[in-house]
Amino acid sequence: MDAILLQILNGLDKGGAYALIALGLTLVFGTLGVVNFAHGALFMLGAFCAVTVNQVIGLEQVTLDPNNLTPWGTPVEIREPYIVSWLGDTGHLILDYSVPVSILAAIPIMIVIGFIMERGLIQFFYKRPHAEQILVTFGLAIVLQEIIKTWFGANPLPQSPPTALRSAADIGVLVGFNPGEIVYPYWRLVYFVFSALVIGGVFAFLQLTTFGMVVRAGMADRETVGLLGIDIEKRFTLVFGLAAVVAGLAGVMYTPILPPDYHMGMDFLVLSFVVVVVGGMGSLPGAVAAGFLLGILQSFASMTEVKSILPGIDQIIIYLVAVVILLVRPRGLLGRKGVMEG
Amino acid sequence: MGILQVQNVNKSFGGLKALNNVNLDITEGTVHAVIGPNGAGKSTLLNVCVGRLVPDTGAVLFNGRPLTGRSPHEINQMGVARVFQTPEIFADLSLLENVVIPTLAVRDGSFTVNAWGRVDNQAEIRDRAEAILESVGLAEKRHHHSGNLSRGDKRRLELAMCLVQEPKLVLLDEPTAGMSRADTNATIDLLARMQEEHGVTKIIIEHDMHVVFSLADRVTVMAQGTPIVEGTPNEIKGDPRVQEAYLGGAHL
Amino acid sequence: MTTPLATARSDLILFGAFTLAVLTMPIWLVPLGAGYPDLMQKFAIYGLFAIGFNILFGLTGYLSFGHAAFLGVGSYTAVWSFKLLGMNPVPALLLAILLSGLFAWVIGFVSLRRTGIYFSILTLAFAQMCYNLAYSVLTPITNGETGLRVLNSDPRALDHLTGQGVVDGPLVSNIFGLEMNGLPGFYFCAVWLLIGMYVSIRIFRSPFGLMLRAIKTNQTRLNYTGISTRPYALTAFVISGMYAGLAGALLCVTDPLAGAERMQWTASGEVVLMTILGGAGTLLGPVIGAGLIKYSENIFSAFHEQTLHDIFGFLPDGVEGVVVSVAGLFVGEGWHLTLGLLFMVIVIFLPGGLTSGVRQLVQMARRSSGGSGRSGGDAGTAPQAAE
Amino acid sequence: MVDFLNPSRRGVLKGGAAIGAGLAAPTIFSSQAWAAEYLNKPTGDTVTFGFNVPQTGAYADEGADELRAYQLAVKHLNGEGDGGMLNTMKPLTLQGNGVLGKKVAFTTGDTQTKSDAARASAKRMIEKDGALMITGGSSSGVAIAVQSLCQEAGVIFMAGLTHSNDTTGKDKRRNGFRHFFNAYMSGAALAPVLKEAYGSDRKAYHLTADYTWGWTQEESIKNATEALGWETVEAVRTPLGAGDFSQYITPVLNSGADVLILNHYGKDMVNSLTQAVQFGLRDKQVNGKQFEIVVPLYSRLMAQGAGENVKGIFGSTNWHWSLQDEGSKAFVKSFGAEYGFPPSQAAHTCYVQTLLYADACERAGTFMPCGVVEALEGHEFDGMGNGPTLYRADDHQCFKKVLVVKGNENPTSQFDLLEVVQEVPAEAVTYDASIFGGELGDCNNGV
């Protein structure tokens, strides 16, 4: 029982991440009709926003200690973050909360990145075949990750959650389990709540604002909305910016769970496409539902009990689900009939 | 008994009744027009005939054999060709290739792997294809990219692609929709000439009365999913029910 | 607009020129630094892979993202054939073609029920399943991470029958004692490349090929023309799967080791990139794309600071330092960056791939030199997507 | 049979320099092989080594560090710089003027941590650049693949970082040599330390990367810990590159185990350790004991990736820059002076391998692979870190001290992440060469 509950928690948490990444992808596909292979790179860039913010606020003052030499004969460096020498304990606190603080920086940065990407490249590919969109965005993804690699190196760069959230919460006790049976890391709980909030925010935005209405109408029937004389171009740019922000935030908050490296975008790329397709191309609720579904299925497939019956099932479960869904229900879980139905 | 019989066909989309107990009998060798206001169910009827839609109840018989439940390529192989509202051609291929493909489909059936011989060595196929291009007046453009043709020429090409198969029945879905007056007239001329030369049974779905009265032998008027009147063009012209259907359509 | 016509004669000239270029690779590649057997073998093998992929993607427009699976199946089959039957490459190739064709039939049968991006995702999913399983639970068959190799203790039944069972050197695939590494290995692959190219030309010009191109342009029309499209697409899928299997087997003929990474989605992506880079739907494009990518993978990655200093040594010191550090971003560790930029540039400026770029250049040159493009032209079918 | 593998105009063709050099005659046809006793016999005044390291992919930083070490080794061999370990290596035949009077040149390549790419790159070095020796790599799959290639081609392979038992076990080759330690030695070195620290009554839970290296390590550690009296509760295989390991970690919580052993390397290890710590495993009390995590194979780069999560966690490593023997000090000094930070264990092993190869050539008086093999087999040396070392003739495995390390609780710098707990002597980790099977076969000169 406790094992199953824990796997459901795992699934929800994983699903939150999958849903966040897939959300922007399906948004861009649904409104802009663009298959964006650089979406994973946006996730990765978001994560590196957190790294950059951490490095900037953790900028260290280096003093050399001439009395103390390293084994290779240079003076030992004594490093102290400027922020600590200026602000004392407050500085420590800000450093400690650098990941959540990064969100503030990541939003404008990701908007700008999204705008530049859309205006500089994507807009020229709206009418081009999917294959060319895939190729050019794939090329872009490689370029972006190589730039990150040149700057930050290939090794993962660990980011810590705030000290207060570093350990695990004994949530089982709250619902009557023995202490220690159902524990779950605080940060993962935070991530889950965060992803729920962002997803809710995006939905509210699309549901309640005029802009959102136009976007939703555009997802339903792009040509008509264009005919209504609405400047769809400008809104496309905004949609792309929104998708970039969602992916970026997903990346920022994921850094304490997965120390970011330059390749993490590619690692999530295939997965996010599977989530989008399972949910239904261009369907936002579908992406969310598929994210959670795949997260939970993946968690259960990894259980030893399951693996002993079906060896290797945890290696392929995601793909297996995609195949089954596509064959049985080609428009995906919540895709509208007739949209991209093949 | 006619070449095509539509028997008690019903088709609904959700709550909307698109075809309501439709019966139709098309006589071989005639040009039969189906007209009616928007939403009268003309296109649905046509799609049921070519196998794109499956009717909820009822049957479509072609020469006494049922068409319902068959896929489009099977129906074509039985001798039913279709012309679309917007010309559906192979836009990336040359005009000649566009007509070679239907010619091959007649000779080789719906699936044959002939991966070794060169297309340009198949003399009899080529001759037929070039002859049909000649007859629609596109011969000199045969090596052009068909995607670059004018709308009228695309329509000619599409007709050529149908006719080269020597079908027994051609279904035309608003063949002059969106065309200029000149292109429309050229298309009417072409269809008329073809009727003289080939004499194939045709069903034409049309809005444009000019087209209907120039070409059709018989006319069926549909409204709200049901045929309401059938007769020669002259009979139809004066019928008050037709006027009402169109005016009523305007109300809707 | 009319394009130059492809006649039987022009195809023959094309094939002749291609044959000449392939067979003289050991000469003209030397000044490019690529004239060594292994890279030339890779050119031929990946060229073959891309030619096959192009028969599916270039002609029908179905974008498979899982072709590496067939490459892997071909490789494993070949090595198993070496292990069980013997080091002769012929049975290995035949079995590989057969088995990868069978695999392609199964995967294609399922995947072709969908089109567009759904088809791509289905093929991707199948290939990833193959890869993940080959790396882990299928290790008894694939030898997992280490890769499947031929061992002296393997049965190699035919070898023992013909008295070649006991080898004291390394086990290398051979035909009657001629070992399939080095230049003989290259020529062996080159012959297969030429056969593959010839078959591809025949398919391109055949009624079958015309149907495949029609699938790409307008499936609806094709259906209403009395053609059942799915069996055509499936046949194309199987043929291209067999090419991939053959390429995979050749990889093992020249180097008897089959690794699971060959099936990874990035490997599938690579052949897509090769084909589009060179020009999808053209005859030569995929081979050129394959060559270009393998060249940059092997040559750009081998540059290091010292070689850069050698190259730019003629510059004044200060300038040299700057040039070397800038150039260093794009070679060695940074060769992926070069590759990514290359894709972007090609797709943005030459959507038809390199071959179409060359064609445009030729046309521009013709136009400017006053030789106004002939219209009409001689007999033959027309705008062939080829050169 | 005529040899077609002979290099084409090495020196002129180095890198792309030849692109502008015009049409060079295809020497590939005018083979001079019949004159040579071995493949790629150097005819000019240089000898070429091939440094085959991961430049892209997850181990790119490790590869970059290996390359730094190689370049330093070449400098030292050619008599430039401060000489590094050439000053401490015993016995030493090298003169500091290159090898056998020839200057050392090198060519580099990218393994991409894929067997195919690694072999293609090694082949280029052999066929085009005329490399006599290939070295490098950051994973066992690649090492084994390249080792067997070198055996077939007839050059020497000096393995870089490879920890699987198979490299010098069932996949050993006469032309291949490994200085790095292996999974068995990790187990043998770790077990007594673990016993001392955590007692002999422990229940272990393994998470193992689902591929060959993971399996050999799991087996070795299992055997070693079970011999102590530990019980193995469960050994679960995880997909390579799983990213999020939470679904594998939660079952540990209530499994009754009180030690988690992570048979992961690289990114997998960074992720699984980070996440295991977040799940509060290290704060847990199970069976009345403190829950512990063990990472049998450590590297500094991985420790950097996992950050503060490594604090207090035991593992083993081949070498660490804080060692105080003369050899290590000399190496750290020249590496640090050159690059500004201390070398990693991968850098150390690569540097040492290069020197050992060069010295063996010098001692053998030839670059001929069989001569070099003979000179290296059973060679005993000292002054290269890790104390007196034997290159065992039976399996070409080095036997030397293995370091048991622990994540540093109070690091003084970003490099000071691991603290050496114990230097386990070579005798304690030596095993019978036959236990892992495999055949060395004959040496191959490539002609």
UniProtKB/TrEMBL annotation, chain A:
<feature type="transmembrane region" description="Helical">
    <location>
        <begin position="101"/>
        <end position="122"/>
    </location>
</feature>
<feature type="transmembrane region" description="Helical">
    <location>
        <begin position="236"/>
        <end position="257"/>
    </location>
</feature>
<feature type="transmembrane region" description="Helical">
    <location>
        <begin position="134"/>
        <end position="152"/>
    </location>
</feature>
<keyword id="KW-0813">Transport</keyword>
<feature type="transmembrane region" description="Helical">
    <location>
        <begin position="269"/>
        <end position="297"/>
    </location>
</feature>
<dbReference type="GO" id="GO:0005886">
    <property type="term" value="C:plasma membrane"/>
</dbReference>
<keyword id="KW-0029">Amino-acid transport</keyword>
<feature type="transmembrane region" description="Helical">
    <location>
        <begin position="189"/>
        <end position="215"/>
    </location>
</feature>
<feature type="transmembrane region" description="Helical">
    <location>
        <begin position="309"/>
        <end position="328"/>
    </location>
</feature>
<keyword id="KW-1133">Transmembrane helix</keyword>
<dbReference type="GO" id="GO:0022857">
    <property type="term" value="F:transmembrane transporter activity"/>
</dbReference>
<comment type="similarity">
    <text>Belongs to the binding-protein-dependent transport system permease family. LivHM subfamily.</text>
</comment>
<keyword id="KW-0472">Membrane</keyword>
<feature type="transmembrane region" description="Helical">
    <location>
        <begin position="42"/>
        <end position="59"/>
    </location>
</feature>
<dbReference type="InterPro" id="IPR052157">
    <property type="entry name" value="BCAA_transport_permease"/>
</dbReference>
TrEMBL record, chain B:
<protein>
    <submittedName>
        <fullName>ABC transporter ATP-binding protein</fullName>
    </submittedName>
</protein>
<dbReference type="Pfam" id="PF00005">
    <property type="entry name" value="ABC_tran"/>
</dbReference>
<dbReference type="Pfam" id="PF12399">
    <property type="entry name" value="BCA_ABC_TP_C"/>
</dbReference>
<dbReference type="InterPro" id="IPR032823">
    <property type="entry name" value="BCA_ABC_TP_C"/>
</dbReference>
<dbReference type="GO" id="GO:0005524">
    <property type="term" value="F:ATP binding"/>
</dbReference>
<dbReference type="InterPro" id="IPR003439">
    <property type="entry name" value="ABC_transporter-like_ATP-bd"/>
</dbReference>
<dbReference type="GO" id="GO:0016887">
    <property type="term" value="F:ATP hydrolysis activity"/>
</dbReference>
<dbReference type="InterPro" id="IPR051120">
    <property type="entry name" value="ABC_AA/LPS_Transport"/>
</dbReference>
<dbReference type="InterPro" id="IPR027417">
    <property type="entry name" value="P-loop_NTPase"/>
</dbReference>
<dbReference type="InterPro" id="IPR003593">
    <property type="entry name" value="AAA+_ATPase"/>
</dbReference>
<keyword id="KW-0067">ATP-binding</keyword>
<dbReference type="GO" id="GO:0005886">
    <property type="term" value="C:plasma membrane"/>
</dbReference>
<feature type="domain" description="ABC transporter">
    <location>
        <begin position="4"/>
        <end position="249"/>
    </location>
</feature>
<keyword id="KW-0547">Nucleotide-binding</keyword>
<keyword id="KW-0813">Transport</keyword>
TrEMBL record, chain C:
<feature type="compositionally biased region" description="Gly residues">
    <location>
        <begin position="370"/>
        <end position="379"/>
    </location>
</feature>
<feature type="transmembrane region" description="Helical">
    <location>
        <begin position="43"/>
        <end position="70"/>
    </location>
</feature>
<feature type="transmembrane region" description="Helical">
    <location>
        <begin position="337"/>
        <end position="358"/>
    </location>
</feature>
<feature type="transmembrane region" description="Helical">
    <location>
        <begin position="185"/>
        <end position="204"/>
    </location>
</feature>
<dbReference type="GO" id="GO:0015658">
    <property type="term" value="F:branched-chain amino acid transmembrane transporter activity"/>
</dbReference>
<keyword id="KW-1133">Transmembrane helix</keyword>
<dbReference type="Pfam" id="PF02653">
    <property type="entry name" value="BPD_transp_2"/>
</dbReference>
<feature type="transmembrane region" description="Helical">
    <location>
        <begin position="231"/>
        <end position="251"/>
    </location>
</feature>
<keyword id="KW-0812">Transmembrane</keyword>
<feature type="transmembrane region" description="Helical">
    <location>
        <begin position="90"/>
        <end position="110"/>
    </location>
</feature>
<dbReference type="GO" id="GO:0005886">
    <property type="term" value="C:plasma membrane"/>
</dbReference>
<keyword id="KW-1003">Cell membrane</keyword>
<feature type="transmembrane region" description="Helical">
    <location>
        <begin position="271"/>
        <end position="293"/>
    </location>
</feature>
<keyword id="KW-0472">Membrane</keyword>
<feature type="region of interest" description="Disordered">
    <location>
        <begin position="367"/>
        <end position="387"/>
    </location>
</feature>
